[in-house]
Amino acid sequence: MRAEARVAAESDGRGGTRLTTLRGQSPLLLRRTGPRASAGVTVHLVGGAAGPLRGDELRLEIEVGPGARLELLSVAAQLALPGRPAPASRLTITATVAAGGTLRWLPEPLIAAAGCDHVAITRVTVETGGSLLWRDDLVCGRHGEDSGDFVADTLVRYGGSTLYRHELAVGPRAAGWSGPAILGGARAVGTVVTAGPESMVPGAAGPDAAVMPLAGPGMLATATGADIRHVRAALDPFCAGHPTARRPGAPVAA
Amino acid sequence: MSLATLLLLADGRLPSGGHAHSSGLEAQVSAGRVRSVEDLDGFLRGKLATGALVSAAFAAAACGDVARCADLDAGLDARTPSPALRRASRAQGRALLRAGRAMWPVAAIGREPHQPVALGALAAAAGLSPAETAVAAAHGAITGPAGAAVRLLGLDPYAVHALLARLAPECDRIAELAAKRSGDPVDDLPAAGAPLLDIGAEHHATWEVRLFAS
Amino acid sequence: MHPEHPEPHPEHPEPHEHGPDEVPHTHPDPGVDPHAPLTGGPRALRIGIGGPVGSGKTALVAALCRTLGEQLRLAVVTNDIYTTEDADFLLRNGVLPAERIRAVETGCCPHTAIRDDISANLDAVEDLEASLGPLDLVLVESGGDNLTATFSKGLIDQQIFVVDVSGGDKVPRKGGPGVTTADLLVINKTDLAPLVGADLSVMDRDARARRHELPTVFLSLAEDKAATPVAEWIRGLVAARAAGTPG
Lengths: 254, 214, 247
Hints:
The complex is a heterotrimer.
Chain A: E1 2-11, E2 17-23, E3 28-33, E4 41-47, E5 57-64, E6 69-74, E7 78-80, E8 89-97, E9 102-106, E10 110-112, E11 117-126, E12 131-140, E13 149-158, E14 161-170, E15 188-195, E16 203-204, E17 209-213, E18 218-225, H1 228-235
Parallel strand pairs in A: 1-5, 4-6, 5-8, 6-9, 7-10, 8-11, 9-12, 10-12, 11-13
Antiparallel strand pairs in A: 1-2, 3-4, 12-15, 13-14, 15-18, 16-17, 17-18
Chain B: H1 3-10, H2 25-30, H3 37-64, H4 69-79, H5 83-103, H6 115-125, H7 130-153, H8 157-181, H9 195-204
Chain C: E1 45-50, H1 57-68, E2 74-78, H2 85-92, E3 101-103, H3 110-116, H4 119-132, E4 137-141, E5 158-164, H5 171-174, H6 177-181, E6 184-188, H7 193-196, H8 200-211, E7 216-218, H9 228-242
Parallel strand pairs in C: 1-4, 1-5, 2-3, 2-4, 5-6, 6-7
């Protein structure tokens, strides 16, 4: 399956934000949600089909213009599944945030079901003065099953320089992934990257979590846990401050 | 190239500050995740797939073109979210430069570069190739924490060296992969991260009692 | 190479350009050669203080800081196996402000850090001189080790080895590189000699036999809180250095 989705937000010139583009294809369907009167716009990804499955090629483009505020959430966890024998499924997200723009990406977790082969490529470019909060949670396998193969390949650039570059590979093909250097047997891991004015308080954020000031203007919070609830407990506080922020410990499909 | 020169660069006795760093092992020992040679095996395999691959690629890239050192240094900053690990890498880079400058005419690449960048610059000055540099980097990335494990846990040194011997082919493979990619643009170079090493390093840096600098 | 990162200037290579609004970076002074003199002028006299566990090295360093701290520009590097314990002792005792003390981690091997791989100690000494300006004296205190632990000549100019009488009056006779070759041997805790049955004259005789013309002093910090004979020896070295004569 191939699908493309695109959302573009710009300032309405009156302190608000309007969407100039909002289109998608199953399984990448986008819906505007949230109150009309707020300064920012909230958009939900609504899964139009199970997946991604092997062979899927999905693309999501996000554009936030000067002064616009956009928050993207999803209604349910993404479940990467094996499907038929085929090359790895791939979700490529390309996002740009202009000066004075704000993008918050707060989707439900990705679940790498046993046998899946999925790659998530994230390329975010933030202009100087733009603001970013980018959350990614991963659950390695559904309850009681092994993890499938999954690679997260993330690049965040800010003000023309690379701020954060990270790859994480889990699953049977990834050597040592569940060993004590990488996840130490944890089944869930989450990260929050901020860039620009968005910030968090650095330091330990629980026994298996930390908030780290990056070398450039941004921060990373990382948490691992036996299940996603531990990760949420550590990371949700950094994603609050918005009416749609998740409640800590909220149940998840996994 | 000179094999003896390569061995010199990869020797754990090179006075380059490495003995005081456990490459994240001390934090994982304290967390109870590494207690045995088998646990160390898992730790080192994870290290090879992540930090060793990144270090080897960046060291090989620096060796291949010393003019890239500044960009490579920034690339390692972007791949090292933990401030404690950035400090540890730069402290080891500085120490390695100190040793290297006494041995070869090393290019001016700044006072405190990341360790892989310093290693690449030393290797270039010593006349080594990017492929050889990658082997030295990958080898150092696992022999360092293996030595720390012997000291921290009192593991049988023969069992630990037997493990290192078993890992040698994988170490070679990682080095080869790293060298092959070392000409890529900095953003495309390996970026495999290890969340627990980042988290562990931040916790470790706050301990009042610790034996290793990182 | 990225288009955003200009080629480093060949004579002034820098890791990268720093924008005015950028968060401070973790790499200080890019482009500075580690072997370039950081403060200009002659560097401080570096004295290593080593000896077995419990022989009173840290107490001696504290006493020297109190005695010499008023007259000399002084800093201390500690090498405790437990990161900051010795540094904390000096801080708690208020003998030196925090910025004049650096603790070096030794990876379970205090003798490695002072003898075989001295890089972390050299970095610490240089950082102290860079941050505090010119110094007269840097004391490098070893972690407690054994009778073979001595300092590298690449790290220090002169070394003091501290033993105490409670280890028994055989220690000087046993020798070892610390006792035999240190520039000054300090036999400490002499006030305990009657309690532990140590014969100071035996220790003195054996030390002379082992050390030939190298000096040995007896010390009881309980009775001489200023560590007078050691402080005098150091003052002599600093004066000789200032006068340009070899210490």
